């Protein structure tokens, strides 16, 4: 049964994810699941900010709340085959078990807001490497483009988060997607470096 969320309930879920209030977010999800006879995954899928279409996962990722990202992903049912060894230890802290949190719904993970950005875009924009690792380990695509034709790597590079760029390059051979094949991410980063150098010389 599809959940029926009011605007106020959606706003509350979005706010709790943005604030990293895991206890209240968990409590609210449980209450809505019981009321609507559905799943937490369905509740999360239905909770999108009215104007920007951002999800709870967007908000948690953008604000650097690794525990909240882990909490959200733990409610999603599709298991991911990738190893969790690359995930920062703090990202899994507080989870019942690695097995319990090694689940994700690729459609939800890769949900795009009204500007085409995914949660991975926003994590890269903020330079939150632990969350970048966490999302990638759960199957988030590094190849999705936003309405400016930018992949998540672009967001990291344009904002000088080179520690995030370096991680993408180190993992590029193992990633899926057109931009990750045949050294695509490495070529993308090289192009970005050349553009930045050109802009620096021209004073832009």
TrEMBL record:
Compositionally biased, Basic and acidic residues: which spans? Answer: 195-204
Does the record bear Repeat in its keywords? yes
InterPro entries given for it? Ankyrin_rpt, Ankyrin_rpt-contain_sf
Q: ANK repeats span which residues?
A: 115-147
Task: From the UniProt annotation, give the residues forming the signal peptide.
Answer: none
Q: Give yes or no: UniProt keyword Repeat.
A: yes
PANTHER family registered for this protein in UniProt: ANKYRIN REPEAT DOMAIN-CONTAINING PROTEIN 39, ANKYRIN REPEAT DOMAIN-CONTAINING PROTEIN 39-RELATED
Protein name (database record): Uncharacterized protein
């Amino acid at each position: 049964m599809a959940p029926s969320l009011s605007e106020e309930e959606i706003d509350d879920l979005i706010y709790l994810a943005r604030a990293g209030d895991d206890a209240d977010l968990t409590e609210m999800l449980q209450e809505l699941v019981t009321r609507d006879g559905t799943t937490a995954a369905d509740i999360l899928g239905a909770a999108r900010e009215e104007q920007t279409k951002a999800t709870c996962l967007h908000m948690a990722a953008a604000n650097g709340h690794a525990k909240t990202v882990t909490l959200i992903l733990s409610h999603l049912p599709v298991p991911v085959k990738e190893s969790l060894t690359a995930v920062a230890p703090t990202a899994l802290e507080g989870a019942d078990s690695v097995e319990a949190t090694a689940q994700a719904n690729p459609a939800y993970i890769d949900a795009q807001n009204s500007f085409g950005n995914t949660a991975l875009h926003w994590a890269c924009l903020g330079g939150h490497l632990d969350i970048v690792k966490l999302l990638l380990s759960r199957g988030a695509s590094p190849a999705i483009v936003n309405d400016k034709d930018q992949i998540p790597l672009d967001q990291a590079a344009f904002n000088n988060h080179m520690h995030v760029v370096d991680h993408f390059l180190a993992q590029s051979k193992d990633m899926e997607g057109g931009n990750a094949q045949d050294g695509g991410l490495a070529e993308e980063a090289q192009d970005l470096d050349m553009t930045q150098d050109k802009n620096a010389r021209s004073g832009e």
